[in-house]
Here is the input.
Amino acid sequence: MYLNHWGLEKPPFPSGLDPKLFFEGASQRESLARLRFLLAHRRRLGLVLGALGLGKSLLVSVFAEQCRQAGQAVAQVDMLGLSVREFYWLLGNKLQAEVRVEDDLPRLFRKLTDRLHENALQGKQTVLLLDDLDQGGPDLLNHVQRLLRTDAANRGWLTLVATAKPEQLRRLGNGLLELVDLRIDIEPWDELDTIGYLQLALFEAGAERPLFDDEAMSELYHTSEGVPRRVSRLANFALMAGSNNSQEMIEASTIQEASEAISLTNDVALGSAGG
Here is the structure.
């Protein structure tokens, strides 16, 4: 483990959707502001778009926590592989509707809409966060449209925020796309944001001195193209490589070595999958 070598208390670049790991770069700050605008103006549907690795899921998780703190009723669901019945059951469960495993689809829908109505009577806005909406099947997407046409949505008491990849937009269908009130595109970090993230992550992990020299941080930004997931993975590999080489500081050559190691790992994984 490289932690002792670098004097770290914990891994600085863990994977996962913990909002505590969120770094608010310029694009993330703008995206959250637009999401708050969507909610404040009681719009029905906001669509967060971004390529793989840009942090769409983490962004909406952070927004979900902000909504909870503001007193809204919140349900966050990953749409990948869900059936319509699972979708309604998960939403009902997260919104504390009295759904049961044995409930059929019409009953699940009725209990969910009853809960939306109850929230509205209490002056509470309901926020549904649907991650990977582009991975839902046609039937599921039709039911998302159905929710967007409920009385709660029409009266401004229900807001949906969905994530998708730009190249998969056509999968959503014209009917759903026509209901989008606000499109939010997440962009990669610029070099200053990338460096800021590295420094903050290392500080939070217990680093008492700089671990990457200036050329290394610049090389990491250009190699990763500012994509947050790539930045974290490349930085993590660089720390491991530097530890193995007993380095005192990560240099640009270490970033290049780490990038080659990642490429080799990916090639092996693809080869195994194909074989």
Observations:
- The chain has two domains: 3-14+189-266, 26-185.
- The domain at 3-14+189-266 is CATH 1.10.8.60 (Helicase, Ruva Protein; domain 3).
